[in-house]
Specification:
55% helix; 4-stranded mixed β-sheet; elongated; CBS-domain; 384 residues; 2 domains; 10 strands
Amino acid sequence: MGWSYRIATVRGIALRVHATFAFIVLIAAANWASLGVAGMAFGAALILLLFACVTLHEFGHAVAAQRYGIPVREIVLLPIGGIAFLGRATRHPVQELVIAAAGPAVNVAIIVLLVPALALLDEPFSLAPAMLRPDHATLSLGQALQWLVGANVSLILFNLIPAFPLDGGRMLRGALGLFADWSTATRWATGVGRGLALAMGAWGVITGQFMLVLIAVIIFAAAGQTAADERSHAVLSTQLVGDACNRHAIVLGEDDRVGTVIRYLLTSYQPDFAVLRGGQFLGVVRRSHVLQALARQSGDRRVTEIMAGCPAVPAYLTLDDTRRVLGEAGTAVAAVFDEHGFVGLVSLEDIAEAESILAFARQPAPSSGVRLRPAAVASESMAR
């Protein structure tokens, strides 16, 4: 989410606004330009109120996730809506149902608060202002609140469409997960999502609704990515990181210099180097650290001056869980330890390579009946 800027932090969650968000505010103001400067301000205020509701919707998901111990990295507001980035996905059906339902529940709560406010203003409750246009409007608080009620109803109805990854699609997966294994539930839910996305996109093309086509494309792509992630989980959950990391990699001592690492980078395929004091792990030097040191022209410094820390994972962790740890830590490499101490390093690149080979190894055996052992295949792929 490049080009996004933090505007607040709530409950440890960064709220960011993407730079392109300004366009939808300008478009909303331009739609009301026929009513002058006051009309433009009214149009901009309407869209900002709508996205305030979208923000609360996303915080509903985020708070529900936090209640289950799932970290939430940030919420980003885009012209097409908001996205809450969770540190990890849940594989528990009830948690999926609760987290997905929490967003629309917030919109229901907003409507419950707005309807009495309309009554206090002696404004009749109607959903018609959800399609409010400048030629049928008065610039009043009552009209704005009525439009906001209708907009929240629209948000609820749209998000409850059972098209994964919309809230309705996630609730569908949670419900299916109560009766089927998680992989099957994900396959069915993402299949429904992609089917509905195709129908939505076709309708958007027929009716000339470009935004609907764009949303359909995003839904189709996100559903496909989730299905791929689930297939990846099925492969990586069968392999322990201790059996897959490179136990014979080149390591550095605390007195080694950057020049030494450069020679290793030129003469080997290894991009990451553990720095040890005896058998004690001190940190990791990555190729990017060396390039940054060269860019600063800081001389042939000791590797301890450019190394960085990284998460420590036990050797009995699966590659899938290791990838989750790296995602939550926001880093690309981890140090693996067993009961005897430091074992080796594993990176996201290593895990991706292991996944591709393990997936190949899981394919039906050739006619000769020979089948590769996944552990051996992954160990060989990562010993470089």
